[in-house]
Amino acid sequence: MNDFFEKTDWTGVRLPSAPLNNRNNMSAIIMLGAATAAVTACSTATSANSSAGALAAGYGPAMAVTLGTTFPIITVSMGTIITTLTPAFPLQISPLTAKVRPEDARKVLSDLAIIVAGVSSTTVQSVASAGLPSPTFPSAVADVSSKLGKLSSFITKKFVTPLTF
Question: What is the number of structural domains in the chain?
């Protein structure tokens, strides 16, 4: 009986239950899915880069597939996160205390552009010496793998971890 009176307004009309906060926020689910897809794409690209490095002169054609498949997944994923955050941060500037920030998504995109440039440079090095790899080719492959690994860690730290409840 007490329960009835506590859940009514001043007219005695029963009030609907307040929605429970079960952390099932749709925006977080969308962003977590996008971030997870980006991390998976980074892992795939890292594996592809290592495999392509073993091909030496075949590095460029092998990485062309990665550039056309996995890198767009990362780009679209970050675009999804930026789009999801736009209503909260219309100027794309968030406070430092925000758990997920559009600035971090834009950093991922700029880092990805640097990695694409690294892949292009490594492709040139794969055939630099009369169709054979230059002496710096192995270190260039390792550099691309390292940058992809750091990008994956950054996405995990800035997006996956804060969005995992």
Answer: 1
Please enumerate in sequence order all residues whose Cβ is within 8 A of that of 28, keeping only pairs 6 or more positions apart, or say none: 163, 165
Joined together, the tokens standing for residue 148 give 């992809």
Distance CA(92)–CA(78), nearest Å, equals 13
| pLDDT tens column, 105-120 | 999 999 999 999 999 9
Tell me how far apart the alpha carbons of residues 153 and 125 are, in angstroms, rounded to a whole number: 27
Assigned domain for 155 exists: yes
Is 34 part of any domain?
A: yes
The CA–CA distances, whole Å, from 161 to 29, 62, 155 equal 12, 32, 9
Q: Which structural domain range is residue 130 located in?
A: 24-163
Q: Which residue ranges of the chain lie beneath pLDDT 70?
A: 1-24
